[in-house]
Design goal:
Layout lengths: L7 H4 L4 E2 L7 H5 L11 H13 L1 H4 L8 H5 L7 H15 L4 E2 L9 H7 L5 E5 L2 H8 L10 H19 L6 E5 H6 L1 H12 L20 H4 L18 H4 L2 H17 L10 H16 L13
Parallel strand pairs: 1-2, 3-4
Helix pairs in contact: 8-9, 9-14, 14-15
């Protein structure tokens, strides 16, 4: 789910290249038949032209590569082969041997697994209340109710965890809070899982992250992505969300919060109960009801 700001750590590794969000793999996969037989070079070039025209690709570092460079690295004339060639070209330009893709909220694990049966899926999970508190400060999400944001967090996290069960050891979860509190230990664990040596430079990601991101986002909603890890961002919901919104979120997401071992607030206190009632009434006036997200335990 969005609002993590930590992907740059992996990209800071000498062997791993992960660009800013590209957002093309699944959308173009779902319309791949419209490009025709990819064993024909003109069709491949047409697909590559559309990939490079993607707004997310154009505003990131990958805009520096062109169709001819990618064609030189095309190993097989399939959609997966084309995607591989795009990322491989970009990685090699940075003298790196492995590539990855950051895609917040992706629920197309089955498609990605079919395309790349050897892929590793790293799921970074953050306390949904902190995610929601962060989202409510961003213009894109500001108009959303805490009810919608709570259900969206539950749906995304639960969906990915359930999909991960089908992947065995190729799926791994880490908690944002563990990464922030014990970054070296957590990153060593991740590196061992992906088969790479841990590099201390991964903790210095913030020195170069800004140069790899769209500058308009560095100045606005992704400022944390170019800053050092900050433990004060853990539990930030307690000061950024009203007691009523916190109570509503906990009512909706309580089971998943428990499953993920996040501490609950005491819902027996008068202030907490009154806050929830007032917030529920406010949402009810707008036609929104508060109900728990269905059981989420793995």
């Amino acid at each position: 789910v969005q609002r993590m700001g930590t992907t740059s750590m992996l990209d800071a590794h000498a062997q791993i290249a992960i660009p800013f969000e590209t957002d093309f793999i699944i959308p173009l996969y779902l319309k791949r038949d419209s490009f025709g037989d990819l064993r024909e070079t003109p069709n491949v070039r047409r697909l590559l032209t559309e990939i490079l025209a993607n707004p997310f690709v154009r505003r990131g570092e990958m805009s520096d590569i062109d169709v001819d460079q990618i064609m030189a690295h095309l190993a097989e004339p399939t959609y997966a082969g084309v995607v591989e060639a795009v990322f491989r070209t970009w990685a090699l330009r940075r003298n790196k041997t492995r590539w990855g893709d950051k895609n917040p909220g992706v629920l197309h694990v089955h498609h990605l697994n079919a395309l790349f049966p050897d892929a590793l899926f790293l799921h970074l999970i953050r306390d949904g209340r902190d995610v929601t508190a962060s989202r409510m400060r961003i213009k894109t999400w500001r108009q959303c109710s805490v009810i919608l944001l709570a259900h969206h967090w539950c749906w995304m996290v639960t969906g990915l965890r359930r999909a991960g069960q089908t992947l065995g050891e190729r799926y791994k979860e880490i908690r944002y809070e563990d990464l922030v509190r014990s970054p070296e230990e957590t990153l060593r664990n991740v590196c061992a899982w992906i088969g790479e040596a841990y590099e201390p430079e991964m903790l210095d990601y913030h020195h170069t992250a800004a140069s790899r991101m769209p500058q308009e986002l560095v100045r606005t909603e992704h400022r944390s992505s170019v800053s050092p890890l900050d433990q004060s961002k853990i539990g930030v919901f307690r000061r950024l969300m009203s007691r009523g919104d916190r109570a509503v979120f906990q009512t909706i997401a309580q089971q998943l919060l428990v499953d993920l071992q996040y501490e609950l607030e005491d819902d027996r206190s008068l202030g907490f109960r009154m806050g929830r009632k007032f917030s529920e009434l406010s949402h009810a006036i707008r036609g929104l009801a508060v109900f728990p997200f269905p059981g989420s335990q793995r």
